[in-house]
Amino acid sequence: MTQKILKYIALGLMILAINACNIQPLVQKQENKAVPDAYTADSTQDSTNSADIKWKDFFSDPYLIALIDTALGRNQELNIMLQEINISNNEVRARKGEYLPFVGLSGGSGLDKVGRYTRNGALEANNEIRPGQEFPEPLPDFIFGAQASWEIDVWKKLRNSKKSAVFEYLASVEGKNFMVTHLISEIADAYYELLALDNQLVILKQNIQIQTNALEIVKLQKAAAKVTELAVRKFEAEVYKNRGRQFYIEQQIVETENRINFLMGRFPQPVQRSTSNIVDLKPLAISSGLPSQLLANRPDIRRAEMELEASKLNVKAAKAEFYPSLKITSNLGYQAFNPKFLLSTPESIIYGLAGELLAPLVNRNAIKAHFYTANSKQVQAAFEYEKTILNAYIEVANQLSKINNLEKSYDFMAKQVDALNQSISISNDLFASARADYMEILMTQRDALDAKFELIETKKMQLNARVSVYKALGGGWK
Questions:
Q1: Could you tell me which CATH number the domain at 26-99+155-323+364-472 has?
Q2: Rounded to an integer, what distance in angstroms lies between the CA atom of residue 287 and that of residue 293?
């Protein structure tokens, strides 16, 4: 009879295992890693890639290098991300421990009083420990020993969970790398903005001085009845406008300095920087390489890839929940009713060994829900991976196009500034000989100032575009 029962149990477990094997993921989306061969139609097939350059070699300004170096050590957000990496690493250790045997030590004591007219009470009353010595009443109990349990990972459920945690850990590392590239880019952009504001402030102060001198000349001409009071007021208004503009730029400088200070993890203080003319700075050389190199260089793509691999393993681990699980338990120790007999060997030795085979039979909705959720997350991760690749490609393509168009725009703006500088000299000569009125001088000076500001802004955009494409290519974290 016992053999038949065991046969029926074994047969039932086999049927459950077969049914579990028949459960397939609802959707299996395979990620698409294909990218175009080039960023633009006229791009060269050159594998030289600026992303391979270390950031200290990519930037040449020693002040900027010092700012970035400090930020990489003190930025709070980056340090928070480093703790996230430690948390992910601890999760790997926890998952690894789940498929290893659990062993623990235990000890205890207690008293037990049974009724005389019970089975155990009658046995104790009719038996003696030894001739003339009955069981103590109440009966003490002392025990200590080792206990072990081990779930045999037949279906690789636990190992797949551990591998998934490893990929999540690697994804957190890539997340930190992506934050490094983002931090470097932010500081460089803010630094070049600071240089641009410094140069605009210098030009504005020079223009204020020129207009102040012109105002004194106009006042003298008004005294000589060569111009009217209207000319004096127009020049005064222009001087006041630019002086008010000066404080606006100074406020922008303070805010930009403090943005850099925040990224560096320090309280507001002056930011050491270059005093050279930003117009004289040469744009950084960029080699875009091949689009396929983005898969290896971009940390966000690598992070999405790690998360995708983790999601695939989570599907396998969730599917294994349908299979029977095998658990082995054992214990070994000493037990006695009197402490002086506790270490008596082999009389007080106790041990046990048991195996447990368990499979879900009725109401498997929770397991199914977990499995379907894991499958949907795998599909999400595949789409996220494809989206990250597409976004990276478009970012590089946009920045390369921006660099090209800004270079053409800058050349024309530089010619505009030269022409307006010459116009200022000509208008001053014509005004001195009464061949031009004051409005022509004012408009020429105003146009020249705006053109110089736009030229500096374009130069800043050129520098920022090269930093952006360096980031978009995946540079800065190596």
A1: 1.20.1600.10
A2: 12
**Stretch(es) of the chain classified as CATH 1.20.1600.10:** 26-99+155-323+364-472
Burial of 293 (0-12, 13-18, 19+ CB in 10 A): middle
From CA 134, how far away is CA 126, in angstroms rounded?
A: 9
Say which amino acid occupies 85: I
Q: How far apart are CA 382 and CA 393, in angstroms?
A: 17
**CATH class assigned to 100-152+325-358:** mainly beta
Tell me how far apart the alpha carbons of residues 331 and 103 are, in angstroms, rounded to a whole number.
9
User: Considering the entire predicted model, what is its pTM?
Assistant: 0.85
Sheet holding 139-152, edge to edge: 102-112, 139-152, 325-336, 349-358
| Tokens, residue 35 | 């990218």
Per-residue model confidence as pLDDT tens digits over 438-472: 778 888 888 999 999 999 999 999 999 999 999 99
Query: What residues contact 223, with CB distance under 8 A and at least 6 apart?
Result: none
Render pLDDT for 299-352 as a digit per residue (tens, 0 to 9).
999 999 999 999 999 999 998 888 888 889 999 999 988 888 888 888 889 999
Q: Which residues contact 300 (CB under 8 A, 6 or more apart)?
A: 174, 175, 178, 388, 392
